[in-house]
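Reopening this one. Same input as before:
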Amino acid sequence: MKERDYLFDNYKAFLIVLVVVGHFIEVASDDNVVMETTKWIIFSFHMPAFVFISGYFSKKTQGIYKLLQQLVVPYLVFEILYYILYTYILNRDTELAFLYPKFSLWYLLAMFMWKMITPLFRRLPGYLWIAFVLGLFVGASSLDDNYLTLPRMFTFYPFFLLGMDLDRNRIDLLRARIRRMWAFGIFLAINAFLAWVAVSDRISIKIFYGRYDYEYLGLSVPMGIALRAACYLISYIMIYVVAIMIPGAKNSLSALGQKTMAIYLFHGLIFAVFRRGEIWYQSLGEIVEDAILVEASIGTIWLLCQRPFVAFTDWVTHIPMPLLQKIANFGFIGHLEKLRGVGQQKL
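Same output, byte for byte:
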């Protein structure tokens, strides 16, 4: 059996904690300086890093059937679960609109699109620079901020490509040449800068979301492009700095890094229920609010690590679809597979 890469397991564990905590603390009261600063630090790199690692593990071109099975089917299943929860339990006004992903499900849709187009996109000369330019200028477009998650797909796509291009030896070389204390110093310096930006309240944290256009953020196109380029740079540096600091050996968090899919898919459902009480905990004072939000995040992570959630996620990503598998071998889809480089291998 191939030995697990515990560095990436530990990295994914760290990131999934940031994802859950980041979502829970988003509902903190507006005058909560600690939570606002923490949001800036988390959102500056946690999704770019997740996309980067996803790209690293996507080097092998998968057939369309596998992509539908592992990404689109779970997307549809959880879209329905969100709709049921919102409509019949939380009494929230919503629609079952599969082209408009709910909460964090945009990531599954974006992953499907990235994995579909990348084998073709990488054949373009200078494909990485093209992706960066598209990511910068999509903020100047009038695309709907959630339709097929197109703005986020373009914004984060460069990190997917960077991950695909990553040579594992490069990480080992950086970890060997750069001491953890130096990396930690860079980490602290960037976080101090982000904390200053958060306190100054001059720029919206949503500049890191990748979803909103520059006009919505109150920015001119040149300023928006400049700020997004700065965000790209910060995210890129933070990805590698954290990679240097993360332990590479198996530890108590390594198992968590192997269950990120279940945590990612389910945590939004729990968060939606938790959020119903935001007026109550926002009135308890900043320190109490901080404790409640962090404890709720950690409790959610612990709960979703349990076997029922992991088993359901594994099942929903491996539902057999014989008819779809046969269709994927013929006609237009079959020709598309050959163009993508899948060829005659079993789909």
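So the earlier flakiness isn't reproducible anymore. For the record, Residues 64-89 form the longest helix (26 residues).
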